[in-house]
Specification:
Layout (H helix, E strand, L loop, with lengths): L3 H8 L3 H9 L6 H14 L5 H8 L4 E5 L8 H16 L4 E5 L4 H9 L6 E4 L9 H6 L4 E4 L10 E4 L1 H14 L4 E6 L2 H5 L3 H17 L2 E6 L4 H14 L5 E4 L5 H10 L9 E6 L1 H6 L5 E4 L2 H16 L7 E4 L3 E2 L10
Helix pairs in contact: 1-2, 1-3, 5-14, 8-10, 11-12
Length: 335
Amino acid sequence: MVTIADVARHAGVAPSTVSYVLTGRRSISPATRARVEASVRALGYHPHAGARSLASNRAGVLALVLPMREGMHVPVLMQFVVAVANAARGHEHDVLLVTADQGAAGLRRVAGSAQVDGLLVMDVEMHDERVPVLRELDRPSVLIGYPADAAGLTCVDLDFAEAGARCVDHLADLGHRYVALVGAPRAVYQRDTGFAHRTMAGFSAAAMRRGISSTTLPTGTDHGSVRSAVAGLLERHPAVTGLVVHNEAALPSVLEALRATGRKVPDDVAVVAICPDEQAERLAPRLTSVRVPAEQLGHRAVELLMAKLARVAVPPLTLLTPRLVERSSTARRCD
């Protein structure tokens, strides 16, 4: 096993100099730093994780607090997990995934264990009981999502209100006069989850602004309930010609329900989804969609948290601009 002493001999410096280069605890001249780093690469030296933690007073672990709750779509959540893990690895950090739904008590337990350097928090509610705790903790945190009162927090999210509005504007521009939001499961709205709340608010406000009729419908994730919900929607509101679907798990069933009721997409009913690009591309027809940028959000959250660990000032709220991609599921109305 290559040691610090081996690196020091190869670079022609003292072992303490190698340690300072690796930990950043003392300023080293650029030329010496370059020589040490070249020796590290040449010898294939890897600092021992325990020694590195002691030297930097860091655990080398970030906690991703992602409580598994009713109505959550695991495949999309895993995209966030992978993005966070990849970004953390780029900073030589591992990720502790915390899935227990223990609210504020769970945050205190994780932060108080000294096993993590900082926390990334997901599934943020508008009035989230974890928020006061995050403000009190002595460890930095970043939320993927944001509550109604985000004072004193660092948050990053897609601008879901604008995403809902952009879907409505797209349908209105194509001549649709009655649109419906096929939304998340009822439990997600009952928790007042931020992204679902803001999408519905943006959808409704845009419909009012454009002077078109609209309705909203919480929808489950199992095939039978989705088919029943869509059939009931079209029976109660036969004038609906445009659907905005903000429920990734329901998308295949929505399309099948439309076929079962004799509606063609996009000739009879246009469909716009808020979902990852790969899912929109995989379905038939390929769906016009606003992309959920899980990879970008995960990476941005980690970068913000690492900046806070380095005591670098960061913006309190980062909202990513929604991007709508037009595909085969929407077309201009001919009537």
